Amino acid sequence: MNPGPADIEVENAAKQIHAELSPGQVKEVDFLPRQWLKLGQDAILYDTSAIKKAAAHGTPVVQVGPGAKLYLFPAGTTSPTARPPKQPSGFPVRPLRRVDLT
């Protein structure tokens, strides 16, 4: 889920855009084990093992939050929200690396 204000681009293994989420948009995306997201003018790398683990129990819903952290939301959440729920172990997922693209 993208709470905005900038687009989010999800790259695939070939460094091409796999998915693009506009502000307010929710979209199903398959994450690589180490996933780059482009958030505005930054490219951010995440270790998505916690997301993959959550996927074993159904389709996880993930939203980018403050500090570019990835928060887990209950399955069926259909729109971005200002306040994330209490996070399970391994969440929020913190960025491993941030690159300024300007």
How is this structure best described in words?
The chain has one helix at residues 49-55, and strands at 8-11, 17-21, 34-39, 42-47, 61-64, 70-73, 97-100. The chain has a five-stranded antiparallel β-sheet, with no helix packed on it. By secondary structure, the protein is mainly beta. The protein starts with 7 loop residues before the first strand and ends with a strand. The model has no long low-confidence stretch (mean pLDDT 86). The protein has one helix and seven strands, in the order E-E-E-E-H-E-E-E. The protein has one domain (8-100).
Question: In a few lines, what is going on in this structure?
Answer:
The chain is mainly beta and 102 residues long. 7% of the residues lie in helices and 32% in strands. It is globular and about 35 Å long.
Average of pLDDT? 86
Number of helices: 1
Q: How far is the first residue's CA from the last residue's CA?
A: 24 Å
| Net shape | globular
Describe the structure using short key phrases.
about 100 residues; mainly beta; two-stranded antiparallel sheet; 1 helix; 7 strands; about 5% helix
Which SSEs are present, and which pair or pack?
Blueprint: E1 8-11, E2 17-21, E3 34-39, E4 42-47, H1 49-55, E5 61-64, E6 70-73, E7 97-100
